[in-house]
Design goal:
- With 291 residues, the protein is mainly α.
- The protein folds into two domains: 87 residues, Tyrosine recombinase, N-terminal domain (DNA polymerase, domain 1), CATH 1.10.150.130; 165 residues, Intergrase catalytic core (hpI Integrase, Chain A).
- Helix content is 51%, strand content 3%.
- The chain has 13 helices and three strands; from the N terminus they run αααααααβββαααααα.
- Helix 2 packs across helix 4, helix 3 runs antiparallel to helix 4 and helix 6 packs across helix 10.
- The longest helix is centred in the N-terminal third of the chain and has 18 residues.
Length: 291
């Protein structure tokens, strides 16, 4: 690892960036260096701007990915190199606000019944039962599962915030069966092939899609689909939205409120204001005299 790369890594670790963000930021700077075949500290601000324009023109990145690359380069030049680049003038691209994919309760049960791997079944059931992010479930430790209080401790979630969520009564025996079968020896409850390291995210996404096909589900199912389904199903069951916000670890209630838009039960059980009018007792409609 070059001294420059190590310095950027140190800068991010000092700020306690998540491993996912660290990897994405390092990847963005590497991409810039490869574009010019030159060390990034020898690339001018106009060249950085030209690189970002090229990324847009070649449609090499979705708006969210472009915004992440932009933020990574701003961090590298302003923090690691201490330069005041005017990249702030390059605005973030607006992202399409698409509604998340949500499984019905029947589809969720169908997915779990079709699971052939006990490890992945236990992992995805944990994701759904507690509304966890992928990073949170792969970093779960045995000590985080409190069967006496029936809670899961989520440590250093997004924004480095800890929280406590419920431990499902139906999930606990599955976790115990998984533990007896796999006997993880390291800290992590769901380790990768190297028992001291977390599972690879790409493998988890591939396994999730494969299991959805086995279950005969036509929707595009990702690990995050279970987090969306968790929130939507709680909302449909009458759980207060602020409780759901706390369980998900959302900073803003506006983020949680998204699930009111994807809940069919909420949409169909809400009465139209027309239904509240007393149409039988209303006066004769106005019209021309003698009409």
């Amino acid at each position: 690892m070059s001294p420059l790369r190590q310095r950027m890594l140190d800068d991010m670790q000092l700020r306690r960036f998540s491993p996912h963000t660290v990897a994405a930021y390092l990847r963005a700077v590497t991409r810039l260096a490869q574009f010019y075949n030159r060390s990034p500290d020898r690339i001018s601000k106009e060249e950085v701007r030209a690189f970002l324009v090229a990324v847009v023109k070649r449609k090499q990145a979705a708006p969210s990915t472009f915004n992440q690359v932009r933020c990574a380069l701003v961090f590298f030049y302003r923090v690691t190199l201490g330069r005041e680049f005017a990249l702030e003038r390059i605005v973030c691209q607006p992202s399409a606000k698409k509604l998340p994919t949500v499984l019905s309760p029947a589809e969720t049960a169908q997915f779990f019944r079709a699971a052939r791997s006990l490890k992945y079944r236990a992992m995805f059931m944990t994701t759904y039962a507690a509304g966890l992010r992928v990073s949170e479930v792969i970093n779960l430790e045995a000590r985080d599962i409190d069967s006496k209080r029936m809670v899961l401790h989520v440590r250093s979630g997004k924004g480095q915030k800890d929280r406590v969520v419920m431990l499902s009564e139906k999930l606990l025996p599955v976790l115990r069966a998984y533990w007896k079968t796999y006997r993880p020896t390291g800290k992590l409850f769901f380790p990768g092939k190297n028992r001291e390291r977390a599972m690879d995210r790409k493998n988890i996404w591939i396994a999730c899609g494969r299991m959805a096909r086995w279950a005969g589900i036509s929707k595009r199912v990702t690990p995050h689909t279970f987090r969306h389904s968790f929130a939507t199903h709680l909302l449909e069951a009458g759980t207060d939205i602020r409780t759901i916000q706390a369980l998900l670890g959302h900073r803003s209630l506006r983020t949680t409120a998204l699930y009111t838009l994807v809940s069919p039960a909420r949409q169909t059980t809400t009465k139209s204001p027309l239904d509240l009018l007393d149409l039988e007792g209303q006066t004769k409609p106005e019209g021309k005299a003698g009409a």
